[in-house]
Write a structure and sequence with these properties.
Mean pLDDT of chain A: 90
Number of domains of chain A: 1
Radius of gyration of chain B: 37 Å
Order of helices and strands of chain A: HHHHEEEHHHHHHHHHH
Oligomer: heterodimer
Largest interface: A-B, 43 and 38 residues
Structural class of chain B: alpha+beta
Low-confidence stretches of chain B: 552-562, 621-656
Low-confidence stretches of chain A: none
Number of helices of chain A: 14
Radius of gyration of chain A: 21 Å
């Protein structure tokens, strides 16, 4: 009886993926404990976030992919409506209009779009599978550009980047011509200096600081410089848990959220960083394997996009904290404090698990 | 068939998709490889660099101010010390609206207009990020009341500060001096002397007097604490500390009691008194009247008090013993006398018959004596006692200017005494070369004549007169005058005495010294010019009176009409040493606009000598004015009768 219940409970959970995620989140809890200044309230809040996210993941894992395919279009349209709502009635916090108060709850529609946009594109390509033409890629790009434009306007550069990324991954995996990829890249490279010439001085300066934090060490560059110092001073094995001076003495801004990797790198050193990269690689690898084994186009495209988007998360965050990418607001997946992005991420993993565990046996 | 093609299609498609996935995976591996390489670069290759940066981030060196040394009189009476006070301080850079903050603070602790003014003045002179005292000397209640409301006032703090205090107030203020806030000029000087780093954490420095001269001794060595700080600069814990070395204490040769008697003897008169132990150069009293309260300067003086002190007609801020320059007048005569005797001139039994004036050969101009009818038959000893101008006119003319200046230079005239207070003036020992340089005019014989009675261009400070007297009392051996007798190490209380230093020595014949001394002893005996000084004294006093004509009134000075006459009166001068046969104290007194030297300056000297030699304190009711009226002995007034003798004369005064 109990065995059957457990069986029922874990029937649609992918063991390997779940294991990797669990280890990563556990690591995240340790880092958060240190980064928050050993604050138990923060820990409880994050445990709550994790619980909610696990439930969401479980639910998603138990929904068969065919159902997902059916709700792709309505979900996307709902997302657009909500984004329009945000643009018109949204609450402004920290200078950005991202939240929508629905009376019962405050939601962030851009998070919904992180899943809805790639689903929409995957659905569209699956539908047009038989007769895929150039125009379909253009239509897909438009589906992607509409929500991206809304979110960029909020402004939320980090989320825009992730959504555009997730959509581009779908387009890429759907078979967008290599020649055109090369041609577009070349065109952009050629246009870049011309665009640069069109910018105002202050805009150029902002971009320069984005790439060279030492131009403004006390302003925009402060985060990156202090984070580099934290990571660099960690050395091979780190200063030890709870012993990072940069972290504990408040030199790292946003050290529980976007810059939590600096705390991790300072206290656990290069070995810790490599271990974390390994965990991420395992998760991404598993996601790609699920995509490779998926049985239809919708599932393949969606799974591939989810895996690669997770990679984008990790790469952009680690890149910006370690100072090789400009600072955009992207949290470190599964580790940064915060519920919203965690729920979205776990929703994605739930979908991966659903795709993996609802396969029909096919003779090969 | 259709199924096959579909299957084939599916397989082809799947293969195609997998290829794309493989490319994606490659992208992931390359990107993560870049991240790993970046981490390797930061954490291995650049580790040392970032480690240093992290350490300098977290560790801050906090200076610890040393305790400033105390200043004690010879008996251990405290003249300057430190004590802790709570002070309410504002860092303007951290306050949004300073004015408003001050107003809000005024509701918690009392802040009067003076506090506000002083605060504004210091704020204008300081950097934005410096902590500036608004109110000092907060009591416990006020400190507590602020502490409760502290959260409302970011950028406002209560600091426990070491405050300099001068418990004797105005007593010896020119001697002790005062400290004040370090200004740009001080920083420049500290930079030049390489001392700036030792002043991190100090905000006061000696400005005048001993506080200034002995700054390096008093200040001590600043200590440092290595403190772990957070990003806001707040200390989290102390990692290590090097304690400061407290400044050394100064123990003076001055007796504050004697100093007090000297100051009180002046009453409300202006002037100076310097008393020296002729045997070792120790300064026994150093009076500059009027005095002021140095405590006013410690926290930064407010504009009103500063105006009051700076613009007062009495010039209380002038350090008269070192910076007041006066013609020595007749007090110069003993030194001219000795110059003559040592040159073999006017040796006994030489005498003149004084007609009341002197004339240069071939010239009809009369250099008059202060006594129009003359003094009758006068020899060297009597000439000193009665201050006979005619006698010295002749001697000066016969000796010539160089013989006199060369000799008296050994008594410290025209040069700094080297006393341990800064700002000393040299006075003026005029020579024909000096006049040519200064006025582009030749030296006239008449100027040599009046030099013999200490008039003309000749100028000296009270310090120089006291020093000259001490050198004479010490048989021509010049000791370096010094106020600090010993320096006490504040850590172990061990005392290092300051050794006496001989700075000059002139060979004198005992016979000649005896003649001058006898002449000076008789000054305080019946028939002399300062009988009151010697009256009833159980010891013998060798003395000389003098009078200096007042310099013309400066333009632009405001005058109180009722005081006008008083300020035109001559300055009274007096030099003395006692006991005459075994000198223990030598002194010089100047009373500005005091009239005759014997009448006003003499009694002041008497009180000081009485206390020093006998321990006798003056009767409290006895005022200097009363002493002056009691005394009717004639004073030397040579200067007044010699029109050529104003020190401001520009060279074209009367001569032949």
């Amino acid at each position: 009886m109990i065995e059957r219940l457990i069986n029922r409970l874990f029937k649609h959970i992918d063991g390997f993926l779940m294991g990797s995620i669990a280890i990563t989140m556990l690591l995240g809890l340790f880092v958060l404990y240190s980064a928050s200044g050993e604050n138990p309230a923060r820990m409880m809040a994050q445990l709550t976030n994790i619980s909610v996210a696990l439930v969401v993941m479980w639910v998603a894992a138990n929904i068969p992919p065919q159902h997902l395919e059916r709700v792709a279009l309505p979900l996307y349209l709902l997302g657009l409506v909500l984004l329009t709502g945000v643009a018109m009635f949204g609450e402004i916090t920290n200078g950005a209009r991202r939240w929508l108060d629905l009376g019962v709850a405050r939601i962030q529609p851009s998070e919904l779009m992180k899943i809805a946009a790639p689903m929409m594109l995957a659905w569209y390509f699956a539908k047009r599978e038989a007769s895929l033409q150039m125009v379909d890629y253009i239509i897909a790009a438009i589906f992607l550009a509409i929500p991206a434009a809304f979110i960029l306007k909020q402004p939320d550069l980090g989320t825009t980047l992730l959504i555009v990324g997730s959509g581009i991954f779908v387009i890429y995996l759907a078979g967008f011509s290599w020649k055109l990829i090369l041609a577009l890249s070349a065109t952009f490279a050629a246009l870049a200096p011309i665009l640069w010439g069109l910018l105002h001085d202050y805009q150029r300066r902002r971009i320069i600081i984005l790439f060279d934090p030492h131009q403004d060490p006390l302003g925009a560059g402060y985060h990156t410089i202090q984070a580099s110092i934290a990571i660099g001073s960690g050395g091979l094995a780190g200063k030890g848990w709870l012993s990072g001076t940069q972290s504990q003495l408040d030199f790292i801004p946003e050290r529980t959220t976007d810059f939590i990797l600096a705390v991790f790198g300072e206290e656990f050193g290069l070995l810790g960083n490599l271990f974390l990269l390994l965990l991420f690689t395992l998760i991404i690898g598993r996601g790609m394997l699920i995509a490779a084994q998926a049985q239809n186009t919708f599932c393949r495209l969606l799974a591939g996009s989810i895996a690669l988007t997770f990679f984008t998360y990790a790469f952009v965050n680690i890149g910006m904290v370690s100072g090789i990418l400009p600072v955009v607001g992207v949290p470190l997946p599964l580790i940064s404090y915060g519920g919203t992005s965690l729920v979205t991420l776990m929703l994605g993993f739930g979908i991966l698990m659903s795709i993996q565990t609802h396969k029909k046996l096919v003779a090969t | 068939m259709r199924f096959r093609s579909e299957l084939k299609n599916y397989q082809q498609e799947s293969h195609y998709f997998r290829l794309r996935l493989w490319v994606g995976a490659l992208l992931v591996l390359v990107c993560f490889g870049i991240l790993a390489a970046r981490m390797f670069y930061l954490q291995m290759i650049r580790h040392e660099h970032f480690h240093t940066l992290a350490e300098s981030n977290r560790i801050s060196l906090v200076p610890v101010q040393p305790n400033r040394g105390m200043i004690l009189d010879k008996n251990g009476v405290i003249l300057a010390h430190n004590f802790f006070v709570y002070s309410l301080e504002i860092t303007p850079a951290r306050v949004r609206n300073v004015e408003e903050t001050v107003n809000q603070l005024a509701e918690l602790v009392s802040i009067d207009a003076l506090d506000r003014k002083r605060f504004k003045k210091i704020m204008a002179e300081s950097e934005e990020f410096e902590s500036i005292p608004l109110r000092t000397h907060l009591n416990e209640t006020e400190a507590a009341r602020f502490a409760v409301n502290r959260y409302r006032f970011p950028g406002v703090e209560i600091k426990s500060r070491l405050f300099r205090q001068y418990p004797q107030g105005p007593l010896g203020s020119h001697l002790v001096g005062y400290i004040g806030r370090i200004n740009d000029k001080d920083i420049e000087q500290l930079k030049e002397s390489g001392q700036l780093s030792n002043y991190k954490g100090s905000d006061h420095i000696g400005k005048t007097g001993l506080e200034q001269y002995y700054e390096s001794t008093l200040h001590g060595k600043t200590g440092f604490k290595q403190v772990e700080v957070d990003s806001g600069g707040h200390a989290v814990r102390v990692l290590s500390s090097t304690p400061p070395v407290p400044g050394d204490n100064l123990i003076l040769s001055v007796d504050s009691k004697l100093q007090k008697i000297g100051e009180e003897a002046f009453g409300d008169r202006r002037g100076a008194l310097v008393a020296i132990n002729p045997r070792n150069g120790e300064v026994l009293a150093y009076v500059s009247m009027p005095t002021f309260d140095p405590n006013l300067f410690v926290g930064g003086i407010d504009t009103e008090n500063w105006k009051l002190l700076n613009e007062s007609l009495d010039k209380p801020l002038i350090n008269r013993p070192l910076r007041g320059i006066y013609p020595p007048g007749s007090t110069f005569k003993p030194f001219v006398a000795l110059a003559g005797l040592e040159a073999g001139k006017r040796l006994p039994p030489f005498s003149i018959k004084d007609p009341g004036f002197f004339m240069l050969p071939g010239n009809r101009h009369r250099y008059r004596d202060w006594k129009p009818e003359g003094h009758g038959v006068v020899d060297m000893q009597k000439a000193i006692t009665i201050s006979c101008d005619t006698f010295f006119y002749g001697l000066a003319h016969e000796m010539g200017i160089y013989a006199m200046t060369d000799f008296v230079r050994h008594f410290g005239f025209g040069q700094k005494s080297g006393i341990d207070i800064a700002g000393e003036l040299e006075g003026l020992l005029p020579t024909p070369e000096w006049k040519k340089r200064r006025w582009k005019q030749p030296w006239y014989p008449g100027e040599t004549v009046i030099f013999g009675i200490g008039q003309g261009y000749m100028l000296s400070t009270p310090m120089q007169l006291a020093q000259a007297t001490a050198i004479f009392a010490n048989n021509g051996v010049a000791m370096k005058p010094r106020i600090v007798a010993s320096i006490q190490d504040a850590r172990n209380d061990s005392i290092r005495p300051v050794d006496p230093v001989i700075v000059d020595r002139v060979e004198l014949h005992a016979d000649n010294v005896a003649i001058v001394r006898k002449g000076m002893e008789d000054v305080t005996l019946p028939g002399g010019t300062a009988v009151a000084v010697g009256a009833g004294a159980p010891y013998t006093v060798a003395a000389k009176t003098g009078t200096a004509q007042v310099v013309g009134i400066k333009q632009g000075e405001k005058y109180d009409a009722s005081k006008l006459d008083e300020r035109h009166r001559d300055h009274a001068l007096f030099i003395a040493y006692a006991p005459a046969d075994d000198p223990k104290i030598a002194l010089a007194v100047i009373v500005e606009n005091g009239g005759g030297g014997g009448a006003t300056a003499g009694p002041i000297a008497r009180k000081v000598i009485d206390y020093y030699l006998l321990g006798k304190e003056p009767a409290p009711a006895e005022m200097p004015a009363a002493a002056a009226t009691a005394e009717t002995a004639p004073a030397a007034t040579g200067a007044a009768l010699t029109p050529a003798a104003t020190p401001t004369a520009n060279g074209d005064h009367q001569h032949d």
